[in-house]
Amino acid sequence: MIRLLYVLILILIFSCSERGDNTIVKITETIPEPDFTITSDKTHNKFSSIIPYQIKVPDGSVIEAFTLEATGGQFNLNSTMEDAKKVDMDKVHTITGPIYVEGAEVGDVLAVELLDLEPGDWGWTLMEPEFGFLAGEHESAMIKTYKLDKENNLVHFSDNISIPMRPFPGVMGVAPNTEEMLVTFPPRANGGNMDDPNMVKGVTVYFPVFVKGALFSIGDTHAVQGLGEVVGTAVECDMRIRFRLSVLKDKKIEEPQYESKDYYATTGFGTTIDEAAMKATRYMVEHISTNYNMSWEEAYMLCSLIGDLKIAEVVDLPNMLVTMHIPKSVFKKDKKY
């Protein structure tokens, strides 16, 4: 009887995967419904401990946030370089938030699980002479706008170049422990403008908490971007994001870290690539030696064998961001938790 049931199950599986009418059976992904929604009019463009929160949520809440493209709503699909010259910089990098997370205390870690990222209908990329990695080396200025091909998940850069979309938030961060109004452009220990295109759906990003409630904000959303963001902009777009906010009491970090199902990553910011890369490496050595049964020396050696340093962004002066990735597959049962 057991053997007969096994055969029947196999027949059912193969009949579903290879139907005579060539129908493809798809598994529908379930994304949690939001507990709270924060709209794109609930924004700010500085980082400070004195910016009042827009909503207060319990630990573990799923949030739906709507964000604006990087000019804060000043561009549209038909924008030109003349429009770029008129941009009000006080509205640039408007980020949605802050969100107060109940139970978050100084020294904790805030985990932000990216559940879904849905770009708007259009986007733009801008190049100017005094902005970008090659600033001062040219006199060229150009803007490109795109109607995003959401059906095929593509950005059509030109008639013969199409780029798969990998949407992510360029800015994510918690409030720093200062009443000073810090501009959002450079990355810092609180996160901010990290512009790391690996922070996509399915990734959990960890932030050290510097003030009570964490005061988390998100924005500067991109449909796609290369590592480095060398021209200074990505495909900037509006976005609908769903994410879960959780407070971790047993994890300690100095700067943001993140992980997917396949890898763990540390980040380091600095005024030079060398400084940022050294910090990312140091944090990864600490992560491995703390969380696995391994000495500092062995962890350092292991980073040399499996650690991949990546330049996340180089244009948001005065700071740059470098990350180190390690594959989780090399670890088996040595992890302490």
Please specify the SSE layout and strand pairing.
Elements: H1 2-17, E1 36-38, E2 43-44, E3 46-47, E4 55-57, E5 62-67, H2 81-85, E6 95-101, E7 109-119, E8 122-127, E9 142-147, E10 154-158, E11 161-164, E12 168-173, E13 182-183, E14 187-188, E15 191-193, E16 204-208, E17 216-222, E18 239-248, E19 257-259, E20 263-270, H3 273-291, H4 296-306, E21 308-313, E22 320-327
Parallel strand pairs: 1-5, 4-6
Antiparallel strand pairs: 2-6, 3-13, 5-18, 6-17, 7-16, 7-18, 8-9, 10-11, 12-15, 12-17, 14-15, 16-19, 19-20, 20-22, 21-22
Helix pairs in contact: 3-4
List keywords for this structure.
4 helices; 337 residues; 9-stranded mixed beta sheet; alpha+beta
Description:
The protein is of the alpha+beta class. Helix 3 (273-291) packs across helix 4 (296-306). It contains four helices and 22 strands. The protein is globular and about 60 Å long.
Regions with pLDDT < 50 over 5+ consecutive residues? 1-26
Strand tally? 22
The residue fraction in helices comes out at 10-25%
Looking across the biggest beta sheet, what order are the strands in? 1-5-18-7-16-19-20-22-21
* Cα-atom radius of gyration: 22 Å
Shape: globular
How many separate helices?
4
Spell the H/E element sequence.
Answer: HEEEEEHEEEEEEEEEEEEEEEHHEE
Strand percent estimate: 25-35%
Distance separating the two termini: 42 Å
Question: Which structural class best describes the helix and strand composition?
Answer: alpha+beta
The major sheet is characterized as: 9 strands, mixed
Q: Mean of residue pLDDT?
A: 91
